[in-house]
Amino acid sequence: xxxxxxxxxxxxxxxxxxxxxxxxxxxxxxxxxxxxxxxxxxxxxxxxxxxxxxxxxxxxxxxxxxxxxxxxxxxxxxxxxxxxxxxxxxxxxxxxxxxxxxxxxxxxxxxxxxxxxxxxxxxxxxxxxxxxxxxxxxxxxxxxxxxxxxxxxxxxxxxxxxxxxxxxxxxxxxxxxxxxxxxxxxxxxxxxxxxxxxxxxxxxxxxxxxxxxxxxxxxxxxxxxxxxxxxxxxxxxx
Length: 238
What we know:
Blueprint: E1 3-10, E2 19-26, E3 31-35, H1 42-50, E4 55-62, E5 65-66, H2 72-77, E6 81-84, H3 96-103, H4 109-122, H5 124-128, H6 139-150, E7 157-161, H7 169-186, E8 189-193, H8 197-202, E9 206-211, E10 214-220, H9 221-226, H10 228-234
């Protein structure tokens, strides 16, 4: 369930890298937050791990297995990697139950039913809305549904791109609690990108700072939070 990147360079256009020579390690069942200015390559880093962004150099190892050259589809099925993008992460016209069923489309029917029951027990807000269309949910409920849908395949690695985007402060707190509880209850390793850096680092074990596509800092979240330069530039500290 650990994630390790060794000298990873990745980008959308050949010979135009977005992230360069990234070395980082997220231990099993840890939460790691990636922060940095806009355009620094944070989302590209996530997409390289899930296989949606071409990797030109280096090695990506998920739970001990090298996944370079492995398709995004196979990473989900064979290496149990789940990814929740920032936008278009639920199907609006479908109900909560139908979204979960789509998330578990490749799971045997009996196992799918059991997994939906487990997730609705874990997230009672969704259970109360199970017959409601996703487009009628609040922003926080939609994000929670996107998280639950990603968990339908019982992943061991979970990648989240801006899970608190557009949420109210109260909903933001609930979302970060959900991320932490997801790690604890479902035994997943979590790598997330966040603009709300302080709150995300506070629930994290590790932090990663990207600047202009390069690794500026990587270490325990408490060290990132207490670093005066990081605080001044990225955390809103005086």
